[in-house]
Amino acid sequence: MTRARLGVCLVVTILLLPFGGYGLARAGVVPEGLPIVVGLLSVIAEFILLPALFEERAPYRHSSSHLTARTLFGDRSVDLDRITSVRLLTTFSYGSTYRTVVVRDAHGVRLGITTQRSRRRLRRAIEKAEADTTRGVPAPRVSRAAGAHLGLTSGRGLMVHTVLAFLFLSGSVSLYMAVVLRLAGQ
User: Fold this and answer.
1) pTM, two decimal places
2) Which residues lie closer than 8 Å to 10 by C-beta, 6 or more apart?
3) By the 8 A CB rule, do 97 and 162 touch?
4) Residue 87: pLDDT band with limits 50, 70, 90
């Protein structure tokens, strides 16, 4: 199992902990309020852990065709000549909006780009790939929001993405906590 898959399994396990606590509480092994406490701690851990799985951290290196950065689970290197998709991940914390451009290459490597230097390098690689139609490789799929964030396109893509990300995040956290509270109340 790769380190990235191990990280995703860890995230899913943390999300499922309150349901295991509910089963143990029903059996009388642990106090009945435990699923609520574990559910709150799980949500907090998810807000911290999930975005950090693939985000770049210093030190990072740039070459003519690769972008390499240290992530939570080790070094990742994205081939800028073989980018397949670029999308934007938006998270919120204390009234601030944090944006990470998630790049995936033909080898399946994902890297979350957060620095201005890396975004400039990625933008040049995308522009080069879109301009070069003779190489036989399809141009990368760039989401509207990622294109707007990188300055490749103009429009409302970034604003719509931010509103939808906030609604999805607040709705999913509310639904998750409602299920945990419902199970703990029985």
Assistant:
1) 0.74
2) 49
3) yes
4) very high
